[in-house]
Amino acid sequence: KNQVEQSPQSLIILEGKNCTLQCNYTVSPFSNLRWYKQDTGRGPVSLTIMTFSENTKSNGRYTATLDADTKQSSLHITASQLSDSASYICVVSPGNNRLAFGKGNQVVVIP
Amino acid sequence: DVKVTQSSRYLVKRTGEKVFLECVQDMDHENMFWYRQDPGLGLRLIYFSYDVKMKEKGDIPEGYSVSREKKERFSLILESASTNQTSMYLCASSLGASGFYEQYFGPGTRLTVT
Prior knowledge:
Number of strands of chain B: 11
Number of helices of chain A: 0
Shape of chain B: globular
Helix content of chain A: under 10%
Largest sheet of chain B: 7 strands, mixed
Oligomer: heterodimer
Distance between the termini of chain A: 41 Å
Order of helices and strands of chain B: EEEEEEEEEEE
Distance between the termini of chain B: 37 Å
Structural class of chain A: mainly beta
Helix content of chain B: under 10%
Largest sheet of chain A: 6 strands, mixed
Largest interface: A-B, 23 and 29 residues
Radius of gyration of chain B: 13 Å
Order of helices and strands of chain A: EEEEEEEEEEE
Number of strands of chain A: 11
């Protein structure tokens, strides 16, 4: 069964600090991995997408990494801002319409 | 920019009522999706459609049906709403198969069934 596990489930960080979110997956076959940001009460918005051959992708202060051999990905947030408070969802595609979603990392940034 | 809109942000219905959730996308996307999102469970696929009048069951289709009469519109129908269908419902669309094309999500409809 295709599964995506994210850790930590939730974390609190001080404004201006960095943090790293983890994603492990067992999806097969593998097509690509995406990170989405979901603000409270809103729909998810795409941050990055990486295929098998890519091992890092940046979007402003967000940097995603992918190790396809160990089936792990991380999302690094640099110099966090209050607006980074959200749920970050790791999504893995086996190459069809049935995406595998993680349960999300809930990040709270405090001043 | 791709825009996916949903007919209601918040909806309160009574048990046994027939409920329609509407989703419209403005980018001529082929594929449209309905998910529900519950705390601790993440997003789960209810149904998706890859063409007008074409649909396919997702992981949790029981108690739901869908309709796609026009390319830009995808409706989710709860034939007889039950309290366990209280949830956040998210619509999404993609240009082609989501394995290769990004899914764009709507703002969600928070449905409460009492």
